[in-house]
Amino acid sequence: MRCQPPAEIGASYSDIDTPALVIDLDAMERNMALLAERVSALGVRLRPHAKTHKSAMIAAKQVALGAVGICCQKVSEAEALAAGGVRDILVSNEVVGARKLSRLAALARQIRIGVCVDRFEQIAMLDAAARQAGAQIDILVEIDVGGRRCGVTPGPEATRFAAEIARCANLRFGGLQAYHGRAQHLRTPAERRAAIDAAQKGVIDTVAHLTAAGFVCDTIGGAGTGTFLIEGASGVWNELQAGSYIFMDADYAKNVSDEGGNAPRFEHALFVLATVMSATTSEQVVIDAGHKALSNDSGFPDVWRRPGLAYHRPSDEHGVIAVASGATPPSWGEKLLLVPGHCDPTVNLHDWYVGVRNFGTPQARVEALWPIDARGAVG
């Protein structure tokens, strides 16, 4: 059962209950418009990743700004987004299991669906599921361009996969998935460029083998918030899959901007609002946001615009805020904003977005309450 939202539309910012997942709507919209503009200028397609926001409402806004469709990682995410009106979804991941394949094929009867493969057994099972459902599924062969996670070795092996896909009546070879996830959080521009340059060589080699065998790659997908400018300008990738740009998080903010100021600087737009629930000493206070409100896999959240305050020692329902010498300690009952260390899994902990307009001003009001449609969608 979905919990009650922590606010009402039209309510003052100060009336939002906590812990709450709050969006600065103006900042998010600027982020979305900025990426759409930059990707359009690069002359490539945008297919943003919905694993960040898990929201059909936000996906619709991205499509309205020119995105050709949406990425997700799980069949259940695709189902939730499709139910919310998204009509073109790439599951940028491998899908294993008869039940999930059956669901994916059923979804392909309703909307355009793509999925990634890196084993021949997957191809046979996908074809069987699509045939039984009377559906057509687009297939991208995933190549490992440096992430050391999923994907076949770049080069001639992808040609064998394309040929196998071409023999399947209910599958269509769509191209390559070439995402380098490990490159996204390399801190310096030089490190990120070196990683993507190496990835590009593998993609070019793979495409050359496919072309020689008569296969056309309609899509060469990949890229993320940390590297999309590099892939977009490469002349190799033609569909970019950035996701975190809409919200940003504390970990992404540690990346050094690209040389020459060419990288757009996205703004923090996602926060967890928390309340000081205990303040018994001057050295620390305790807030009502712990592990169940924030993901700490990429580090603890930053306390927004409060120098000298540092989040640490979370437990299930508590977070401790250390107060540095000379800093002003928060008062009992005071509300603090936290910038999550990692936005994606933090979103998955909440039922609702509270969208605030005129964020950070006396006029701040709740403008939107959006359910997180694919919360908990892990299968």
Question: Describe it for me?
Answer:
This protein has 379 residues and is an alpha/beta fold. It is built from 9 helices and 17 strands. It has helices at 25-42, 56-64, 75-83, 98-108, 120-133, 157-166, 189-212, 228-232, 343-347; strands at 20-24, 45-46, 70-72, 88-94, 112-117, 137-142, 171-177, 219-222, 239-240, 270-278, 284-287, 302-303, 309-312, 319-323, 335-339, 352-357, 365-371. The strands form 2 sheets. Strands 1, 10, 11, 12, 13, 14, 15, 16 and 17 form a 9-stranded mixed beta sheet that branches. An 8-stranded parallel beta sheet has the order 2-9-8-7-6-5-4-3. Helix 3 (75-83) runs parallel beside helix 4. The chain is globular, with a radius of gyration of 22 Å. It starts with 19 loop residues before the first strand and ends in an 8-residue tail after the last strand. The model has no long low-confidence stretch (mean pLDDT 96).
